[in-house]
Amino acid sequence: MAAGESARHWRHPRLPDVDLLRARYLSKTFARHTHDAYVIGAIAEGVEVFRHSGAEHRAGPGSLALINPGVPHSAYPGGPEGWRYDVLYPAPGLIARIAAETTTLRGAPGFTAATVHDPEGAALIARVHRAAESGQALAADTFLRVAVARLLRLHGGVLPSRPVATAGARTAERARAVLEARIADPPTLEALARELATGVFPLLRAFRERYGMPPHTWLTDARVHRARSLLDAGVPLAETAAAVGFTDQAHLSRHFGRIVGVPPGAYRRERLREDGAARGTGKAPPVR
């Protein structure tokens, strides 16, 4: 992490359905990636620029970045001062439950705008963080639900259904299945196309259309997702790197930081600390 930057990516043990990130970034760039959860980012200072659905969006103080699960996006600072923000990553199940209780949305709920200027909503997100950091789980849970209900009411809608399964989409899905199954030792692009009985360029085009990124970018994103699951389970860093196909811990760290926002060691320390808090010790064992 660059000098002057700081970030904490964590989860309160009594709020298991939401991850939290509070960060100050100056020169940080996020590679194209996805999240399994929703992203609700409240900008406190500076400007975050992110590319989402083929467009560039700028979010300044009082604005919210709203990204639905599985949507590819990248981000970088909008100026030399970087940006500071509070982010919530609520699980889809939590969003669905809140939508069912507080809205008339039927189907998969989601956000219809990538960025909105909403100082009141941004203030609520900051209150979730402050309450969680001070150990007030009841207050944090309350602010979280009020904030999500408000955002769904003002900026929510029903997410589109799955794309029509064209021949190209089916090829892309088969390619993804191969990469998932062989994540640590994937085939070359040419070998993958040959295995699927298609051409290299038709495969590239189909994969981009279906997943919003080429296979190698998707694979890096998938490896980081898998690495997070292993780190959540307490697997040491070196074993995690090898299990998902990174050459070493440095390789894992480079890509992990450009997608998650913190180094894998810091991420794992927070998970171990959360486990310690849940057991009543409050201590995290050394990170290996």
From TrEMBL:
PROSITE patterns: HTH_ARAC_FAMILY_1, HTH_ARAC_FAMILY_2. GO terms for molecular function: DNA-binding transcription factor activity; sequence-specific DNA binding. SMART domains: HTH_ARAC. Pfam families: AraC_binding (PF02311), HTH_18 (PF12833). Residues 173-270 form the HTH araC/xylS-type domain. It comes from the Bacteria. InterPro entries: AraC-bd, AraC_XylS_family_regulators, Homeodomain-like_sf, HTH-like, HTH_AraC, HTH_AraC-typ_CS, RmlC-like_jellyroll. Keywords: Activator, DNA-binding, Transcription, Transcription regulation. This is AraC family transcriptional regulator.
